[in-house]
Amino acid sequence: MSLLRLEDVTRTVIPPDQPALTILSGVNLTIEPGDHVSIVGRSGSGKSTLLNLLGLLDLPTSGVISFDDRPVKSYSSARRDRLRGASIGFVFQQFNLLAGRTALENVTMPLLYSSGRTFWQRKRIAAEMLELVGLGHRLNSMPDRLSGGEQQRVAIARSLVRGPRLILADEPTGALDLDTGQSVMELIDDVAERTGAAQVVITHDPMIARRARRHFRLDRGILTPVDDPAFEPLTRREMREMAPVEPSGDAAEDEADVLDMFADDRRES
Ligand SMILES: Nc1ncnc2c1ncn2[C@@H]1O[C@H](COP(=O)(O)OP(=O)(O)O)[C@@H](O)[C@H]1O
Ligand SMILES: [Mg+2]
C-alpha cells in the first residue's frame, strides 16, 4: 500500500489575458510509508506547484492523486482539509510563527482542532514536542527573542505535533546558515525516523538532497528520477562530519547529536 501516489499528473493554469501555462506535465511519483525523497529543481521549475499537489492543497488539472490508495478527487474540500490536518506536516523556508504568541502557544495551535484527550492534554503534548526539538527551556519565549534556527525548530515542532505520516518540506533551510540548516535537517530526520513518517524535501541544495534515499529532478515541470552517483545518500559518518560539532569518539556519538543541535544556538546568542 502506498501513502501518496501521483499518476500522470499535470497542472495547467490560465493567467488572465494570457495563454494557458502548463506548469507540471506527466508527473508520476509514489511515496511509501517512511519514504525519504528529495526533489531538486531550479527556481520556476514547478517545485511549489508540485508541493501544493502533494499537500492536497490543489488538485491536478489531469491525472490521479491517491492518498492511502484512495483517489482524493472525490473528497469534499472539507474532507481534504481534515486529511491534510491529520496526516501532513509542512515545513517552509519562512517560519510563519505567530508573532505575539509564545513558542508553546504556537505549537499548541494545531491541537486546538483535535478532540478528547489530545485537546485536553494539548499544552503537555506541545511542551513535549518542544522538548524533543531541544527547546524545552524556551517554552515561553516570543519568536522575536529566538534565533533563526530556534524559530525554524518551533515551526517544525508545530508541523509535527499532530504526528503527520507525511512531512513536506519546501526549501526548509533556505533562511538558515549552512550549519544551522544541517542541524535542522538532522532534527527532521530524527523525528521522521522515530515516528515512521515519510519525507519529501524540495530543495536546490544538493547537500540537503543527498540526505534522502530516493532522488528526483524537476525540470520545466517534468519529474525524473536521478541516479547520479553524486546523489548517493550520505552515510551517517559524512553527516556527522558536516555537523558543527564533531564527536571525539564512539562513546561520544549520542551526546554529539545533542551537542550539534545546541551548537548553533550558542554561536548565535
Ligand atoms: N497561478 C499561477 N499563475 C501563473 N503562473 C504561475 C502560477 N503558479 C505558478 N506559476 C508559474 O509557474 C512556474 C513554476 O512556479 P513554481 O511552482 O512556483 O516554481 P518553483 O517553486 O520551482 O520556483 C513559474 O514560472 C511561475 O511563475
Ligand atoms: Mg517555490
Describe this structure in words.
By secondary structure, the protein is α/β, with parallel strands linked by helices. It has one domain (37-61, 76-268): Rossmann fold (3-Layer(aba) Sandwich). Helix content is 37%, strand content 22%. It is built from ten helices and ten strands. Strands 6-7-8-3-9-10 form a six-stranded mixed beta sheet. It has a four-stranded antiparallel beta sheet with strand order 2-1-4-5, covered by helices on one side. The radius of gyration is 19 Å and the shape is globular.
Features of the shown structure:
269 residues, alpha/beta, Rossmann fold, 6-stranded mixed beta sheet, 10 helices, binds adenosine-5'-diphosphate
Ligand roster: adenosine-5'-diphosphate, magnesium ion
Total beta strand runs: 10
Main-sheet strand order equals: 6-7-8-3-9-10
> Helix proportion of residues, in percent?
25-40%
CATH class (first level) name: Alpha Beta
User: Rg to the nearest angstrom?
Assistant: 19 Å
Count of the separate structural domains: 1
Instruction: List SSEs in N-to-C order.
Output: EEEHEEHEHHHHEHEHEEHH
Q: Averaging pLDDT over every residue, what do you get? A: 86
Q: Note the total helix count.
A: 10
Largest sheet, in brief, is:
6 strands, mixed
- Taken from the alpha-carbon principal axes, the silhouette is globular
Strand content: 15-25%
Based on secondary structure, the structural category is alpha/beta
What is the name of the CATH superfamily? P-loop containing nucleotide triphosphate hydrolases
